[in-house]
Structures
1.
Amino acid sequence: MNKRRDPAPLSAACMGVFDSGVGGLSVLRALQRAAPHVPLLYLADSAHAPYGERGEEYVLARSNRIASHLVAQGAAGLVLACNTATAIAVRTLRERWPALPVIGVEPGLKPAAAATRNGRIGVLATTGTLSSDRYRQLLHAQPASVQVVPHACPGLARLIEQGNLEAPALVHAIEQHCAALREAQVDTVVLGCTHYAFVHELIQAAMGPQVQIIDTAEAVARHALHRLGGLWTRGPEMAAVRLQTTGSPQALRDIAAGWLSFECHVEAAPGV
């Protein structure tokens, strides 16, 4: 459980992380575990979530607005902890800030292809991610011997965003989505949305113990720290972790208290 004292103020430079809502907390959690000395600033765009059900122009505009905010707050690098935002906006953000490391998160098709035993991979993702050009590029890069079964999960990120991971509606939705992949006899499932990491156990239960679940949060954290970790000196104290939201700070505070094990300060992000 989170302790509720405020951490020290952010240093002059921090690692900026954002998602359409709370799903990117899975990447933030992996970053903090791997490098607790790195100051982190996370923005949940919960007032506009989920991106996977929005149009490309909308997602691109929101991603640009949030990235500008994080850079103004001192971000020395950006982590797009959202598959849809990465697919639609990461190229534009890299062009806008060529000197700024911009790390995205993508469905783990490559590690899934290496892990599968029967050559059948399922992908659970948002409609926006599965319809993106970037996803099609990832798909075409896979070996011809691997069959990829994509399954869009409209509404699932929104249910997770509500914070109750035991809600009957959420459990039922996961069962319904996984049924199609069970029928396709996949032996490996890629979590193609960072929200889904928080219902990993429910997905595992719905698919069965014989199915491998691929989540890229740890790999993204390692890559981000490889690019940015050297900016901060390791010390005995935990660096500040600050969470901002365009939605309800209390809602984010409640979710963070249940989902994160480290101290963090939650505040509104007015005007973002």
Note: The longest strand covers residues 14-19.
2.
Amino acid sequence: MFEWLVIPVAYLLGSVSSGIIVCKLMGFDDPREHGSQNPGATNVMRVGGKKAAGITLFSDLLKGLLAVWLAKIVSDSNSIVMLSALAVFLGNLFPVFFNFKGGKGVATGCGVLLGLSWGLGLAVALTWIIVLKVSKVSSLSALIAGCLTPIYAWFIVAEPEYIFIATVISLLSLWRHKANILRLIQGTED
């Protein structure tokens, strides 16, 4: 019965905004006050450099992974695992500790997918890395990886619950990138 508590715990874990905390601890400005006004790794790099961005990226990925692992340890229920995966992701997008203004979910979503299926998470991460190396545009990398996520889930995992969660994560992340999509279309994206 208490296994359901892992879902709100996952949301609270997701609500810990790594970028804001990293910048504060390293003496940098709040990333929400600069650039894209997003506390994700890309904007943290603009504010605090590569080291701060790397720590943010790793921390966001880790919280997604940990939430799924915790759910798998606590419960045998696939529903609880999937709801926990969604909860940590929503916590990252809408963190209760930071006025519900969070990141775009790229790293946390990748961590969630790694927790659900190593193959799926690695396929998404490798897509993001390859597109970034070729294009040098982080948002384009996230968008392409996000669009391919449900397809990867279909072929790699092929279970309806995994495909559903992968699709929801993908759609929410794409929605959070709507300003980036507009700038890419206009040719004004950094």
Note: The radius of gyration is 16 Å.
